[in-house]
Structures are given as C-alpha cells and as structure tokens.
Amino acid sequence: MPRNFIKVLLLLTILLGLCILASLIFGSRMISWTDLLNGLFHSEAQSHEANVVRQRVVRTIFCLLCGAALGVSGALMQSVTRNPIADPSILGVNTGASLFVVCGIAFLNISSANQYIWLAIAGAFITAIFVFGIGSMGRGGATPLKLVLAGAATSAILSSLVVAIMIPRTNVMDQFRFWQVGSVGSGNWDTITLFIPFIAVGLFIAFFTAPALNALALGDDVATGLGVRTGTVRIVAALGGVLLCGAATALAGPIGFIGLLATHIVRLVVGPDLRYIIPMSALSGAVILTFSDVIGRLLGSPSELEVGIVTAFIGAPILILITMKAKMRAI
C-alpha cells in the first residue's frame, strides 16, 4: 500500500462530504440548516425549501456517479494508451458520442435517456477504435503524441459533422445544444437507475484488469513473460473505459477534463499502482465534478452556469501546465 494512501483517502472523503453538503445548501436559493434537515429526514415536510433539498439530493447523487465514472474512465484510458494526458475529451471519445446522439435526434427522432445511452456508447466505442487505429500507424506504434494528435484531428472532424447536421435543423439544434454543453441538472431517479448498471460493469472491469494493466506498464515483453495477454487486456480495459465515458456522456452531456484532472492528481500522490489509482480516481472525479457544479450554480445565480463550462475553464490551464512540464522533461 502506498505510504500516503490512507491520508489521501481520508482527505478525499472529507472533501467529498463538504462538496455534498455545499451541493445541498448552495444554489439559486440558499437553504438553511433547518430546511436542510427537514428535507433530508422528514418526508412529510412539504415546504418549498424541503422540496428543493430533495431535488438537490437527486442532482448530487447523479453528479457523484458521473464524476466517479469519468474519473475511472480517464485512469483506464491513460493506462491502455500509456499516455499521461489521455482523457475522453482529448482523445475525441466525447465528440464521437455527441455525433451519434445528434444523428439519433436528427434522423431517428430519439428523445429519451434510455435511447441516448446506447447511441452514445456506440459512438464512443467506434471513435476510440478509430483514434487508436490512426495513432498506431507508422513507426513506433501508438505513441502518446500520435494518439493526442489523432484524437484532436478526429474531434475536429466530428465536431464539424455535428454542426453540419444541426444547422439546417432548428428543432435538432434546440434539443441538442442544452445536452452538448454538459450539465447534471437533468438528472433524476430514473436516470440514476439507468446509469447504475453501466457504472457497475465499468467499475468491475476496471478493478478486474488493474493487476494486468500494472504489468503492461512495465512493457509488453515483460507483461507477456508474466503471462498477461496484452491485446486482450487492452481491449477489455478500453471497453470498460468507453462504457463508463459513454454512459456518463449520454446522460450528462460531454463533460471534459474530469478524467485527466482526477487521475493525474491521484497518480502524483499515490504512485502508479492502478489498484489504488482506480478507487482514488473515482473519489477524486466525484469531488471535482460536484465542486464544479456548485461553482457553476454560484457564478450563474439566479440561474446556473453548466458544469461542462466550469470544468473546461479549470481543466484547460491545468492541461497546458501538464503539457509544458512534459515538454521540459523531454528536453
């Protein structure tokens, strides 16, 4: 066990509790402690404030699940690609999910989360295969730089296709634009119930493949010598990452940078062992997304600023710093 694991786990647990509390209290309407307790523990309370608390409970749970899913997805993608800045948004996976969703809205007249989720997962999976295939071409195979460039180019092309489909269809644009920004405000108990099986399967795959992914980090030759089927492990782990990312994207929209931030911070603190990175990334992702949601509600009061915008403002500068640090190390 890493030396700092217990300390970091305790810190993240405390931060998670504070974020949950802030998510229940802060928003367009401030909630007093009395109203908070009434909304949580007295189901017969029918005041407006108590009803607001109950709505925020659902939103907070949905936010925690999405953050955990995106955090673990980032950890898996970074391990499979051996790229420290891999993330669903950077590799174009989110954009692939978006393209399939907008095609479903435009050509199949879909409108429910149950339909979104399968299209988004299919789009994310096909995009991930395409990006990895393009990044694997040429000498040296799938290097981190080639994967990022392939992801950026793919994301740009798919974004253009999304715009091309939306522009001549006003009804599609109105329905898609609110989803595209990335928001956890639409979460409800039905959405959570739909999400739980996908996140459960994705987390199972993540924990199941963690020891083999640790071996892969030593190199394919060493991993093969240890009895690891490298190709199979990569496919299964990538499937888990895409499943988590696709489900979260379908229900909350393409929220970027959570996987990058959560996993990178955890890796710096607890080391490279995925058996510890995966649960810590889940906690860290939940903390980051819930905190971003609270910030968005406070900045946009009396309305709200969608969480996808907040995570982009937080994540983009950190990505630049990570890239600069990697460049300096390379020099």
Helix and strand arrangement:
Layout: H1 5-25, H2 33-41, H3 48-81, H4 93-107, H5 113-135, H6 144-166, H7 170-181, H8 189-216, H9 220-225, H10 230-252, H11 258-270, H12 274-299, H13 307-330
Helix pairs in contact: 1-3, 1-12, 2-3, 3-8, 3-10, 3-11, 3-12, 4-5, 4-6, 4-7, 4-10, 5-6, 5-10, 8-10, 11-12, 12-13
Protein name: Putative siderophore transport system permease protein yfiZ
Family: Belongs to the binding-protein-dependent transport system permease family. FecCD subfamily.
Membrane topology: Multi-pass membrane protein
Number of helices: 13
User: What is the level 1 CATH name?
Assistant: Mainly Alpha
Number of strands: 0
The CA-CA distance between the termini, in Å, is: 33 Å
Going by CATH, the homologous superfamily would be: ABC transporter involved in vitamin B12 uptake, BtuC
Major β-sheet profile: none
CATH topology: ABC transporter involved in vitamin B12 uptake, BtuC
Q: Which architecture would the CATH scheme give at its second level? A: Orthogonal Bundle
* Coarse structural class: mainly alpha
User: How many domains, in number, for the residues?
Assistant: 1
Instruction: Report the mean per-residue pLDDT as an integer.
Output: 84
